User: Fold Acyl-coenzyme A diphosphatase SCS3 from Phomopsis amygdali.
Amino acid sequence: MASSSISNRPNGSVSSDQPTSPSSHGGSSSSTKARNPPFLPTPLEAAALLLYPILLTFGTLFSLLSPQVRNAPYFPALQAHSQDPSLSPSYFARKSNVFNVFFVKRGWGWISLAFFVFLFTHPAVRSAQQKTRGLIRWGLVTTWWVLVTQWCFGPALIDRSFLFTGGKCELAEAKLEVGADVTGKDFFTAVACKTAGGKWKGGHDISGHVFLLVLGSYFLLQEVGWVYLNHWQRRGAGGAIELRDERSVIMHDGAIKSAAVEGERDYSEGGDTARPRSAWEALALGGRLAGGVFLLSLWMILMTAIFFHTWIEKLTGLLVASAGLYAIYILPRFVPPLRAIVVKVPANLPELVRAKFNTAKANGDVNFYPTQVAVLKPGPVPFQLRFSPSLANKPKGPPPASNGPDKKTKPFNPFEDPPPTALISELPPGHRLVLNKFAVVPEHFLLITRAFKQQTHLLGAEDLAAAHACVRAYHDESSGGQELFVFFNSGEHSGASQPHRHLQLLPVAKMREGLDDGSGWTVLADRLVEGGGVKLPFATFAETIADDVGPEALREAYTRLYRKACAAVGWDENDLGDLASDEVPAKISYNLGMTRNSLVVCPRLAEGDAVRTSDGQEVGRLALNGTVLAGTALIKSEKEWDALRDNPGQLWGVLAKIGCNT
Assistant:
């Protein structure tokens, strides 16, 4: 908690919820190996891609040089050799071979099955975000498969290219000549033509087998290969392997960084039982199934290269598959908005925040104020009271910028262009994570909007989704499943100080530092959604939210709670207007609290009240912001500290003044 957290805020005080200011501390950066260009496959990816032209070239040469294949009758209309077992050059040259019938013809089903088993069973894929991003990529690759082979607003691209290059259905022409009731449009696809007994002849026929097998096998290689490699190297004995993930991405600011900053973390649990002892064990069930499908796909690519289609048809099948794969896997690396289909929290977020905070603290870019802490029990709920005398002397922020002697000054906005010392990470598409400059709780950080949005306007679905994504990431990526508490202050009585929209995030483990194990303190927001209910002297409205709640569902829950809060203050439902937009000013002052499984809104009527000694003398005023929904309060005066500890019931009286009666 910083001074924008629960605090006394005398007139003229500066809000603490600011990013760190630029620092004079610097250092030379060590030379690093040049990164792989984001617009090119990595060397490992290029080696994998090279497998396909090698297989196709080998198969084509084999078909030309092998007497058995060269002498077998070939029928261009069938794109195959004779299907007569006595004349066919090989079992695999017959379309009736079991691998063609039950594997290739159902190829996308096998690819999808292997992917889903891996996605939902592998120990390195545990978070909802990982699964969501994987499903989105599967959807994109599936869409490309459908457009090319099944349907593209009519005939598939394969059929369109065949007709465009002069292809036709011979049966259609014959029927038209004798006046049959049939039109050319009835045979715009190979399936329709062959079903009617026609021959699909004359045009360029992209090899659908090569397209499907290349697309599917490389999709599995991308989705399974990187996860497996990182899992084996980090969790198993594969650390000595020289193969490394060299993918790089272009960030929103133009910087080229390792894809690890946005990549998938290994979520497998600790302990000896979770550590794979061999490369085979690291694959797990899903990886083994995917590996089997991948190898069988390579074998069938080779069989297709030897026995089916012309070399140009196989080449175009490879090129069309490669085009889709490039658009889905390479293009987003150098076009940042394409990586923002869902909110993507940086990998290793807890470690990233911790490292950034420790560096900034050591360099003087963050002001950290140690505190004393006590747990008071003024009522049925324990409250955490923190005392930080040095916070009263915190430095003031920079003066407002001036546009000239005759022009109005522009208010200083610490979130407009956060300095590198404050910036933790971009959070595309519309947010940033920055350090809080004045921290009472270590590793206090902020979620701010990139573009200026009003703090007093309603939150949007993207704001709530970004905050909850950070909460989930903390739980999924930290040992022991650590939690974050998120709070938001809006309105004059809420403790808000900065007009630029921002939500504040506190690691719960850091909020517990200094407390005894038997203190009984837990985050209040979670208590409010647990069974049995909690009796407070101020009104709150809470809902349970699921781990994998979507942005729109989260926004709907927020809107329901906001409506109830407005009703508690006295607003009529009909006067609230359209709440669908995040550009609508809030009608009330309120605080919002969020944890992984709770969302709470508290309407505010006052920021706080006086603190008095036992003889009635006022010694200060206790002001509370959104951290009240965590069950915490912050003071800066020793007299207030003593008065509240001597009479904990007085805290309950202050809480009764900040909101609506219950």
